[in-house]
Amino acid sequence: MTITRAAKRTAAAVYADSSSMRITLGSSAIDFSNAAAPIFGNVVAMGGRGMSIYRDTGSRLELEWDSEGSFEKEVCAKYPKSYNGIQDEEFSPKMGSGNDLYVAGSTSADLKEAIDDMNNPSEDGCSDGGDGTAGACPLGNTIDWRSPKDGAGAEAVVAGRACGSLIAVTATEKQGVAFIYDITNIASPQLLFVKHLSEISETQNPGIAYQSRTLGDIDPESMIFLEASDSPSGKAGIMFAGAWSGTLSFWEFTCPRCSDDGSSADDRAQRRK
Fold first, then answer.
1. Rounded CA separation 12/28 (Å)
2. Alpha helices, DSSP H, located in the chain
3. pLDDT tens digits, residue range 153-172?
4. How far apart are the first and last CA of the chain?
């Protein structure tokens, strides 16, 4: 394989900035016109640790705003036990309620082995999964595990109108922390609030929290913004789907009330049972 000078320079810069990071590259960076002698044209990193807003100029997209490292800072400040931690399918229980993934005939041998390891304190498990018994680790025992890869990486972003403003919502994939922004001014979005979709996971592994019906949404990869006209409650809200918790939740916005001096509180969201 031939590597261009531009690719070498970019790779060196990335390595110098974060030599311990795990970087995923897009295949479009490699020219396979000649399969016997592909050319590595450039380093293209896929994904990130926040979200960006681009303006459509008609001929191209121009970056208006980027959250940069604010997701990790906010999670660390609001939910320190969730900082760059991880809860996903590998933390599923082997026995008892909620072990459907482990016993399913369609589950691969590799995934079963990973679940075995995550539930074994001698491997990657914990001596206390949250109720005094050994099993998979709670989110609070995995702090920083995700830092070498995508940290507080978000997978989906939705936007719509609520409380007279244009609102954007996203959530971190592995920690389940949602971020709600007012993006009415796309050049200067305002963070309204941060909400954990499975706060119990900080102290209880998914199997234990599932049995008590307090699990919430793990791995919220899918979400839908329902404006007031489309909402079953008549109020704008967000539907979150937990890919690995198998859960669905609906959170509606409670619009702020103005005080006598005209100031108002931040928008908030409450969960409808």
1. 19
2. 5-17, 70-78, 100-103, 109-118, 206-211
3. 898 999 999 999 999 999 99
4. 57
